[in-house]
Design brief:
alpha+beta; 5-stranded antiparallel sheet; 9 helices; 5 strands; about 55% helix
Length: about 230
């Protein structure tokens, strides 16, 4: 399935998903709301639309946002009857020529990360299996998006751990250098190293690197501040 094939391809997954909703399901237009991975806000934002004309509809307070909040499908088979529910959305959607709307959650277990909204021009009941197939497309994409996010988080954690390890190695090497040069204990060398870093407001690992590559004079650490 093309949706699954693009799960590692940057932001293309949303474009593929909404495109399949038009090509496979015969929707007139579609849009995708997703909660951004790196932002603190829980409000989803529009990440893909089949037609820029529906971007404002997808972003508006309407079936998509309601679907995301409740974590369950939201539909209006006769859009005109939903004017009291979403007055601004309904008026704009009707003016754009749409007669029905279906929104399904981007959800896996207890986590809802967005909503997929489909627009149809004709009013009336959905064809048999339409809602189920729409949800299936959304589910496949949701699993892929969450897996990609978990993988990215693991990679970031691995990078952080590697950076911490490298910093620790630098500090240990610098401690050994000072201890040997000054003929003091490793603890005394570390105390001098830490005190100098704090006084100069620099990272301990940067100071250690400076000592190792001789851009920092070890005598400065032994003299201490103000001497």
């Amino acid at each position: 399935m093309a949706v699954a094939d693009t799960l590692d391809g940057g932001g293309a997954v949303g474009d593929v998903l909404v495109g399949r909703c038009v090509g496979v399901l015969g929707a007139a237009a579609a849009g995708l709301l997703l909660v951004a991975e790196s932002r603190g806000s829980a409000e989803p934002e529009v990440v893909a639309v089949t037609d820029e004309a529906v971007r404002a509809l997808v972003a508006a307070e309407g079936p998509g946002r309601e679907c995301h909040r409740v974590g369950a499908p939201v539909r209006a088979d006769v859009l005109g009857a939903a004017a009291g529910r979403w007055p601004d959305f309904t008026g704009a959607a009707l003016a754009a020529g749409y007669g029905a709307v279906l929104a399904v959650p981007m959800r896996w277990r207890e986590e809802t990360i967005g909503a997929l909204t489909l627009f149809r021009t004709a009013s009336g009941p959905l064809p048999d299996g339409y809602a189920e197939l729409t949800q299936a497309l959304a589910d496949v994409t949701t699993i892929g998006v969450l897996q990609r996010r978990v993988r990215r988080q693991r990679e970031q954690l691995a990078d952080q751990l590697q950076s911490a390890l490298e910093s620790r190695v630098l500090v240990e090497q610098a401690k050994g250098l000072l201890a040997e040069r000054w003929q003091v204990s490793v603890d005394a060398a570390f105390t001098a190293l830490r005190s100098h870093a704090r006084t100069r407001r620099i990272r301990l690992s940067d100071l250690a690197q400076g000592l190792l590559d001789s851009t920092v004079d070890a005598a400065e650490l032994r003299e201490g501040p103000g001497r």
